[in-house]
Specification:
The chain has about 350 residues and is mainly alpha-helical. It has helices at about 30-35, 50-60, 70-75, 105-120, 125-135, 140, 145-155, 155-170, 175-185, 205-210, 220-235, 245-255, 255-270, 275-285, 290-295, 305-340; strands at about 1-5, 20-25, 45-50, 65, 85, 345-350. Helix content is about 55%, strand content about 5%. Helix 1 (about 30-35) links the parallel strand 2 (about 20-25) and strand 3 (about 45-50). Helix 11 packs across helix 12 (about 245-255). The longest helix has about 35 residues, at about 305-340.
Length: about 350
């Protein structure tokens, strides 16, 4: 069970009475609710033929108070819905499995098992799990609620600058906006004790190098930051594929190219792949240990910082991409709801009592 932040905590079945509850029609979650209705006859809900993101959006926007979703679905989507809170587990744990048609040869199942085993051996499976399921507590850490507040109130003023810089440099404007938020929370007058200034927090030497006269001018700052990121991106080895190349460029934007090169060398020395961000990400914090930085060309660095930095930018970027897509989808959903001819089928499950 998940519910909208601000409501009284939803911890037991009794807390669900009188709440507007939603579930995806025909899903196992709907069946779980029906099973619980035998214990709580006053329990009722509505079932919609929607995607999981649409259901969570309805809770976020106060069209529903609560919803039933699978745990893995909530983990995948929680980052985008900071006003949706985890409630309690409904029913017994279930296992997700692959299912194959009985008419298919056994060789198909064996091939699938070999594929999954290969993904485990290569580390790709762990990387995927970490990417999509490893950030369950990350929402509060990066302050997603504050971020979305600033998306609505601060970002619109600077969107034209990010889009202009994106056209000039080839980056997604939302990636540049995510970088700008990580640097300054979109404050054009931001200044750090070390002397970096502006929306993209450029140093004086960097601004001089790329021809920026006024670091506090947001348009110049965004342009300068985007061009500097492109400069760093282009200096990386051609062997580094995307998206790893972009993640490494972001790390270098934060810690410097020299330290990134040192981390790549350490990754290779430890038997990893210096062209994979996953391996370089593990090597960067070692630049804080004498055993490693004493051998590095550029010496000591607070290598843990760029790891968090890139992770933050990636999450902000994901939210910005989702906000764009979600707004369009939700507007379309609202239009369908107003149009009785195309309205999504809705099942209302009334209480038994």
């Amino acid at each position: 069970m998940v519910y909208r932040r601000g409501l009284p905590p939803v911890r037991t079945l009794d807390d669900l009475l009188d709440l507007r509850i939603g579930v995806i029609a025909g899903s196992g979650n709907a069946a779980a609710l029906r099973a619980q209705q035998q214990n709580l006859p006053g329990l009722g809900w509505r079932a919609d033929d929607l995607a999981i993101a649409d259901l969570l959006e309805m809770v976020e926007r106060d069209d529903l108070d609560a919803a039933v979703v699978y745990t893995h679905q909530f983990k995948l989507n929680r980052l985008f819905f900071p006003n949706v809170e985890r409630g309690f587990a409904l029913g017994k744990p279930l296992t997700l499995v692959w299912a194959f048609s009985a008419s298919q040869p056994l060789a198909l199942q064996q091939a699938a098992n070999r594929f999954i085993a290969a993904q485990r051996r290569s580390g790709d499976l762990d990387e995927l799990i970490g990417r999509y399921f490893g950030h369950d507590d990350y929402l509060e850490y990066v302050g997603a609620r504050l971020f979305i507040h600033h998306v609505r109130n601060r970002l619109p003023r600077f969107v034209p600058y990010f889009k202009e810089a994106a056209r000039d440099t080839g980056f997604d404007w939302r990636l540049l906006a995510a970088l700008g938020y990580q640097e300054s929370h979109w404050r054009p007058d931001a200044t750090s004790p070390t002397g970096v200034r502006g929306l993209m927090m450029l140093t004086r030497p960097t601004a001089d190098e790329i021809g920026i006269d006024n670091r506090l001018d947001p348009r110049q700052s965004v342009d300068g930051g985007a061009r500097y990121l492109r400069h760093v991106h282009d200096r990386l080895d051609a062997s580094i594929p995307e998206p790893d190349r972009t993640w490494m460029a972001l790390a270098a934007y934060n810690v410097g190219l020299g330290h990134l090169f040192d981390a790549r060398a350490i990754a290779a020395q430890r038997g990893g792949d210096p062209d994979r961000w996953l391996d370089v990400r593990e090597a960067l914090p070692l630049l804080q240990q004498r055993e490693w930085y004493s051998q590095a060309n550029h010496g000591y660095a607070r290598g843990g910082e760029p790891v968090i930095y890139v992770r933050n930018v990636r999450r902000y970027y994901e939210i910005l991409k989702y906000v764009n897509r979600s707004q369009q989808q939700f507007d379309q959903l609202g239009q369908r709801t107003l149009d009785s001819d195309t309205m999504t089928p809705l099942e209302i499950v009334a209480p038994l009592m």
